[in-house]
């Protein structure tokens, strides 16, 4: 098949949608499909060779985080030209209603459109206000996919329709077999994500502070960057020295870091549709303690694959982490169950499902213009 993948966010910025689109494209190419990806790009030299830059991103605050999109309507012409030049059989857009590349591709496609909805935002006033218009745009979609029931609920409440649930894919083998990076001695608690309130970075910092006294060999390894990077300054000097800030790390370089750690904390306070970071940690064999929030609770089954705790509760997070640290049998059970759970989300499973949906969309044919 000739597949055009479309990402609304800056291709060379870190983010779950970008990682999903990049890895999906690589898997489709490996399966023998012809693929082009359209996306805003900050630095053209950083893009994969099968990616075409169709805009330059600007940073827009959204869902208590940052959305690096290109909302400028004149980029629609570049999308139109790229689609016409490639001649896809199917266009797979991610977040089709975001006012960026994906929306323009949804409107410009003359072949069937498969759309994946990733957002797990609990609310969006702008989305609510725009729902009447977005329902008309959604008529262009031949197949609607959501990465979780949380994502389906969010989109469905605003545009209606039915959704196929196809989770985000993870290269499980890449995390399961990685050689350990040299991160020094001690027991290592890993956090991966943007250092902001929504991802719960201040929560994990406070939880680590609560654990530090009883666990003098415990270290906190932080992968990511963001506005709350200074949260570690609230820790006592001796404890702060046990925090290793690695900054933003490309996903391709993450497996050795995960392999070098001993357990994972995912304290997001909400707005998650899935939890790729949780699957990656489980694939690496790390016991996971995460927030009991929609999206995350579709990845982690409490007391089976990991432990779930209330959101915004450093004491609860610290208590659950202490359980794992103090009970080797529990830690080993969670490692084993986590690896088994991660396999459900491996790309081999996800790509096969998407290929089936591409075929269904092609057989159905393109929807009429709204």
How does this model look, in words?
The chain has 370 residues and is an alpha/beta fold. It has two domains: 2-169 and 346-364, Glycogen Phosphorylase B (Rossmann fold), CATH 3.40.50.2000; 172-344, Glycogen Phosphorylase B (Rossmann fold, 3-Layer(aba) Sandwich). It is 38% helix and 18% strand. The protein contains 13 helices and 15 strands. The chain has helices spanning 16-30, 75-86, 101-108, 125-138, 149-159, 172-176, 201-212, 237-240, 254-259, 276-283, 314-326, 328-342, 347-364; strands spanning 2-6, 34-39, 51-53, 58-62, 65-69, 90-94, 113-117, 141-146, 164-165, 187-192, 218-223, 243-245, 263-266, 288-291, 307-309. The strands form three sheets. A seven-stranded parallel sheet has the order 3-2-1-6-7-8-9, sandwiched between helices. Strands 12-11-10-13-14-15 form a six-stranded parallel sheet, sandwiched between helices. A two-stranded antiparallel ribbon has the order 4-5. Strand 10, helix 7 and strand 11 (218-223) form a beta-alpha-beta unit. It starts with a strand and ends in a 6-residue tail after the last helix. The mean pLDDT is 92.
């Amino acid at each position: 098949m000739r597949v055009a993948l479309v990402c609304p966010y800056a291709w060379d910025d870190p983010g779950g949608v970008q990682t999903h689109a990049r890895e999906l494209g690589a898997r489709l190419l490996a399966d023998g499909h012809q693929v082009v990806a359209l996306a805003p790009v900050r630095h053209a030299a950083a893009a994969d060779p099968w990616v075409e830059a169709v805009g330059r991103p600007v940073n827009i605050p959204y869902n208590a985080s940052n959305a690096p999109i290109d909302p400028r309507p004149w980029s629609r012409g570049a999308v139109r030209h790229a689609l016409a030049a490639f001649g896809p059989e199917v266009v797979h857009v991610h977040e089709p209603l975001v006012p960026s590349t994906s929306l323009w591709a949804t409107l410009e496609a003359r072949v069937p459109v498969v759309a994946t909805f990733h957002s797990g935002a609990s609310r969006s006033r702008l989305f609510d206000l725009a729902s009447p218009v977005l329902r008309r745009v959604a008529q262009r979609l031949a197949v609607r996919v959501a990465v979780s029931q949380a994502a389906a609920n969010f989109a469905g409440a605003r545009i209606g329709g039915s959704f196929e649930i196809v989770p985000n894919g993870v290269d499980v083998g890449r995390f399961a077999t990685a050689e350990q990076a040299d991160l020094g001695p001690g027991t290592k608690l890993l956090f991966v994500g943007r250092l902001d309130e929504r991802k719960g970075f201040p929560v994990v910092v406070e939880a680590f502070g609560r654990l530090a006294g009883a666990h003098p060999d415990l270290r906190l390894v932080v992968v990511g960057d963001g506005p709350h990077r200074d949260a570690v300054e609230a820790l006592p000097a001796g404890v702060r020295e046990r925090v290793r800030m690695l900054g933003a790390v490309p996903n391709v370089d993450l497996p050795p870091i995960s392999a070098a750690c001993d357990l994972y904390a995912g304290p997001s306070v909400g707005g998650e549709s899935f939890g790729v970071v949780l699957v990656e940690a489980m694939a690496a064999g790390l016991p996971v303690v995460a927030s009991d929030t929609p999206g995350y609770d579709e990845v982690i089954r409490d007391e089976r694959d990991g432990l779930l705790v209330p959101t915004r509760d450093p004491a609860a997070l610290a208590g659950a982490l202490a359980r794992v640290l103090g009970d080797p049998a529990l830690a080993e059970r969670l490692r084993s169950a986590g690896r088994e759970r991660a396999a459900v989300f491996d790309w081999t499973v996800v790509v096969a499902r998407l290929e089936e949906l591409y075929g269904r969309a092609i057989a159905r044919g393109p929807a009429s213009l709204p």
